[in-house]
Write a structure and sequence with these properties.
The chain has about 170 residues and is an alpha/beta fold. The chain is built from 4 helices and 6 strands; from the N terminus they run ββαββαβαβα. Bound molecules: guanosine-5'-triphosphate (GTP) and magnesium ion. This is EngB-type G domain-containing protein.
């Protein structure tokens, strides 16, 4: 169905504060700066529904967007932002893990992976954690325009099989 209307609902700092589990939702996860907020804007064809930045660490809270009054996109803070203070990084894992373990209306996590570099340790760990916790997962590659050489498809298949192996462990 076509996306007709997108409304920002709220930002939450804890799973407990998120909107009621009353509609299906699609959560967008991945490393800081991989393009999570940009993907939401691209899918809803609006420039600045979700705030983006050239600098990693832009999205800091769990943001719910209501689409066509019937389902949610959830924009999450990125992981693996090296410059974040240790405390903030610990926080990230506690609050987003809390989110995933408590949303029975979650249709799937879209795990965004930068296609222009090999999957990073933290991406593999994340795929593995989601797999072990039986959380539905869909891989989405971003920054395909930045892939070098003409081997795009083969390289993506390689990235994909590596990610799948970790998910399946
Ligand atoms: P955090 O909120 O910090 O976790 O980052 P994010 O994953 O939401 O990234 P965001 O959407 O803010 O994008 C980060 C930067 O990457 C921006 O400068 C985007 O314009 C750029 N970007 C996003 N997607 C792509 C893509 O497919 N290709 C290229 N070349 N740049 C992209
Ligand atoms: Mg963001």
């Amino acid at each position: 169905a076509k996306i007709k209307e997108v409304v920002f609902v709220k930002s939450s700092s804890r799973a407990k504060d998120c909107p009621k589990h009353d509609r299906p939702e699609f959560a967008i996860l991945g490393r800081s700066n991989v393009g999570k907020s940009s993907l939401i804007n691209a899918l809803v064809r609006k420039k600045d529904v979700a705030l983006t930045s050239k600098k990693p660490g832009k999205t800091k809270l769990i943001n719910h967007f209501l689409v066509n009054k019937s389902w949610y996109f959830v924009d999450l803070p990125g992981y693996g932002f090296a410059k974040a203070p240790e405390a903030a990084r610990m926080d990230w894992s506690a609050f987003t893990k809390g989110f995933f373990l408590n949303r029975d209306n979650l249709v799937t996590v879209l795990l965004l992976v930068d296609a222009s570099v090999p999957p990073q340790r933290i991406d593999l760990d994340c795929a593995n954690w989601l797999g072990r916790n039986n959380i539905p997962l869909t891989f989405v590659f971003t920054k395909c325009d930045k892939m070098k050489g003409g081997k795009g498809r083969d390289e993506l298949l390689l990235h994909m099989s590596q990610l799948r192996n970790y998910w399946d462990q």
